[in-house]
Amino acid sequence: MAYVPQTAWIQNGTIEENILFGRGMQRERYREAIRVCSLDKDLEMMEFGDQTEIGERGINLSGGQKQRIQLARAVYQDADVYLLDDVFSAVDAHTGYDIFRDCVRGALRDKTVLLVTHQLDFLRNAHAIYVMRDGAVAQSGRYHDLLRTGTDFAALVAAHESSMELVESAAPGPSPSPAGNLPLSRQPSSAPKERESASSNGDIKTAKASSRLIKAEERASGHVSFTVYRQYMTEAWGWWGLMLVLAVSVAWQGSTMAADYWLAYQTSGDAFRPALFIKVYAIIAAVSVVIVTVRSLLVATIGLDTANIFFRQVLSTILHAPMSFFDTTPSGRILTRASSDQTNVDLLLPFFVWMSVSMYITVIGVVIMTCQVAWPSVVLVVPLLMLNLWFRKYYISTSRELTRLESITKAPVIHHFSETVQGVMVIRCFQKQDNFFHENLSRLNASLKMDFHNNAANEWLGLRLELIGSLVLCVTALLMVTLPSNIVLPEYVGLSLSYGLSLNSVMFWAIWLSCNIENKMVSVERIKQFTNIPSEAEWRIKETAPSANWPHKGDIDIIDLKFRYRHNTPLVLKGITLSILGGEKIGVVGRTGSGKSTLIQALFRIVEPSEGKIIIDGIDICTLGLHDLRSRFGIIPQEPVLFEGTIRSNIDPLQLYSDDEIWQALERCQLKDAVTSKPEKLDASVVDNGENWSVGQRQLLCLGRVMLKHSRILFMDEATASVDSQTDAVIQKIIREEFSACTIISIAHRIPTVMDCDRVLVIDAGLAKEFDSPANLIERPSLFGALVQEYATRSSDI
């Protein structure tokens, strides 16, 4: 069984790897899958062809390209049963026709195909049709039999034919076009053969290396720099905070030593006064308790403040990062820094720093006390210190790099796990559970291998430090017993041995904790790497802030706009110039991957233009703060975005509107009945990504969100691609009424959707080929006229 979901699931990897999906390469079948899914021209336009790396969730592909790649994956598997869930919603009309003809009726002609679709054009060729209503099969039968019943299916077909009449009445008669005048049409190319030749000569490895989108994770080497230590120690309270902690730690050690010294002094004399001894000892103990409490509070407060600052810095950096960062950075890398690295900063580093400072101060105190009461022990203490420091230096070089490697190998585990969870339905349908299990096991082993070696290194260090300390303690005890009493006073022998015994464990913990601090400082190092990534432009610029009612007209002037996603990638928009008057309704059409959605991204400054200007109501948008710009627009995206929460929190995230206004918006966007049917009404649950609502309902909810906002400029990117023709017609009517005074730029694959626009923009290969009213474009030989004619002809021929 093969399954193609409505929301495309694409893995991070090359296009070839996504299509093969774990199967071996069979060149003829592979080439056929690419052809029947209309991917050949897309691959020709890509510099590295099918070796182009796809970013996480297909972030660097258009919606249509993602849909066709996952369809090609299903075709290549050569299954017996195919489940296709609305696979034509993200592709343009003529591409959809080609796929239906070459793939569904061609390559899959001998297979069982269950097609879920809103595209009624294709249903005439179905052997059986099932009409769904309220989760049940309302009707079933063949196309003409269902039409004669005159119920639900007939109503859907009537709505579709009504929209088609508008297209057919406007469609021009067939007329010859000069060669090359219709770049939107598909033409054969020799590029695939050239790629085959290259791959047969072994050049495919070079292509893979050159087309890498996800680069190797940055990793520092050598000692953790003093700057990292300084940033952690002084981020919250500055140098004064550090000095305060040191002072309190010294005071605590002084109080501890004073108690021990007082005990030794009182018990050695003949005139022992128990009352005085207990009183002074109690005072020293009380002072020690107060000091250690103050120290604990200081360390906890400073550590918590520092962790909060670091987390806010990382969060702010990620929220302000440009889209190119997310194109090339897997989510696993972000999550490891926000989870495991941040956990080290939150919990472990404050404890290790506090304990390490205490241990080193204790070591100094013990050495001073021991040398004072038994100076010959210096002969042994100095070698002990030197050996411990040598072993620390030898150990930390390995442990630090293992810690860095462990941090890096966690990201692929998290990324693969997240990717697997998102595509679990596809994985199960293709019966690839074992493949993903073994891949996950391999990544886990790679990560745990570093952890194992790190723990082994810890044991190696601990064993040697304990052996050295025990040896020195034995020699010290022997010296204390054998040396004459005039060299070491008898009353101080017990104190000296007590401190010598503690020096062994204290020295071990001091060295071990200092090593752990350096290892955990790798987390600070990695977090600081993220805080230094480039950010988007300023969110707010006071000097150029627009007026409260901007844009008040909605005029848009685009002047020689050139746009690329990253500095090392080809231009996607190649010099577009056009003017849109306020209140105009502009339809944008073109082949999938031609640059339609990119135009909207440029208007939102998702990526800064490479060249050219965009002027809205007389203001160059590149001079505005990003929040001032984006907050003034409304958008219904191609892939609707919902956040975990409720209907209320998704349609009114800033809580600016009353319940009555929200219900009115839901009614206008055809969602009131669906929400009313839920027991919680507006508080109905929305899970992550809105998975408990259909894609069509998610798009309608985004429409309702825009209706509440009343933006002067509205962008619609395939806003009704996942709804039926009847609902589409209703929504288009609502948009015309609700946004009659607004400037609307609507990207659509359905030709009827753009027929009532004031003007239509035809984009092909990043160029504005045509920009005029639908009537004018249809009257003369044009790309749009050819699209309309092709849409009408093919719809009637299917």
From TrEMBL:
Belongs to the ABC transporter superfamily. ABCC family. Conjugate transporter (TC 3.A.1.208) subfamily. This is MRP-like ABC transporter. Residues 2-159, 556-790 form the ABC transporter domain. It is found in: Membrane. Residues 244-519 form the ABC transmembrane type-1 domain. Keywords: ATP-binding, Membrane, Nucleotide-binding, Repeat, Translocase, Transmembrane, Transmembrane helix, Transport. Pfam families: ABC_membrane, ABC_tran. Residues 167-210 are annotated as: Disordered. It is a multi-pass membrane protein. One of its GO terms (cellular component) is membrane. It comes from Oryza sativa subsp. indica (Rice). One of its GO terms (molecular function) is ATP binding. The lineage of its organism: Eukaryota, Viridiplantae, Streptophyta, Embryophyta, Tracheophyta. PANTHER family: ABC TRANSPORTER C FAMILY MEMBER 4, ATP-BINDING CASSETTE SUB-FAMILY C. The chain crosses the membrane at residues 237-264, 276-303, 347-368, 374-391, 467-487, 493-513. Gene3D superfamilies: ABC transporter type 1, transmembrane domain (1.20.1560.10), P-loop containing nucleotide triphosphate hydrolases (3.40.50.300).
